[in-house]
Amino acid sequence: MKRWLLIIFQIALISMIPAASVKEANPAMKLTSPSFENQKEIPKKHTCDGADVSPALTWSHVPEGTKSFALIVDDPDAPDPANPRMTWVHWVIYNIPAEIDSLSEGVKEGDLPKGTLHGLNDWKRIGYGGPCPPVGKHRYFHKLYALDTVLPDLGQPTKAKLEKAMEGHVLSKTELVGLCERKK
Questions:
Q1: What is the pLDDT of residue 19?
Q2: b (16+ CB within 10 A) / e for 39-61
Q3: Mean pLDDT per 10-residue section of the chain, whose length is 184 residues
Q4: Is 127 in contact with 162 (CB distance < 8 Å)?
Q5: 72, 171, 179, 183: which one has the fewest Cβ atoms less than 10 Å from its Cβ?
Q6: Distance of alpha carbon 30 from alpha carbon 182, whole angstroms
Q7: What does the DSSP 8-state code read for residue 69?
Q8: Contact in structure between 174 and 31 (CB atoms under 8 Å)
Q9: What are the extents of the domains in the chain?
Q10: Helices and strands counted in the chain (H then E)
């Protein structure tokens, strides 16, 4: 009887350990930018009406076992948020080395970390193409994927081809959403 009481007491003690302590040990991967907050306006300099330079991006809480990252920036509200018909892809890069935790503002192909490869955006070119919504307020999803592998050279893949290659290799995904509406 004493043995059962001891077991019940131990189970009760273990159940009192706060679940938050587990969460703190493994927080979710996070993507941020000093240029804009999540669900806030993207500054003009990052759009087609400004310098059209990529925003600085920083990530943290990377899962263990990450071998590389992929970044896709797209707009699901094209061409009109009131009647979206497609997702417009603005930037595709992959094989960002696991030891990298940021990309600087306006990063160009030659400035990307060694080993990083480009995919094609929907302008059929490599590199960043900033927001340029024809009508209404659009959402721009900056999606960062932590992968358990370094992908082979996919030869400037489209977003769809990169997503197919990433299947089964995504350890974690995080998003940063920026908004843009052109002023008339």
A1: 36
A2: eeebbbebbeeeebbbbbbebee
A3: 47 40 60 98 97 98 97 97 96 98 94 96 96 97 98 98 98 98 86
A4: no
A5: 183
A6: 28
A7: E
A8: yes
A9: 28-180
A10: 3, 9
The region, left, alpha or beta by phi > 0 then psi within -120 to 50, assigned to residue 13 is alpha
What pLDDT, in 10s, does the model give residues 27-43? 799 999 999 999 999 99
Give residue for tokens 């769809």: 160
Q: The whole model's pTM is what?
A: 0.85
Residue 69: which of 92, 46, 43, 38 has the closest Cα? 92
Per-residue tokens: 74: 């797209």
Give the pLDDT confidence score for residue 14 in this predicted structure. Answer: 41
Per-residue pLDDT at 23: 34
> 28-180 maps to which CATH number?
3.90.280.10
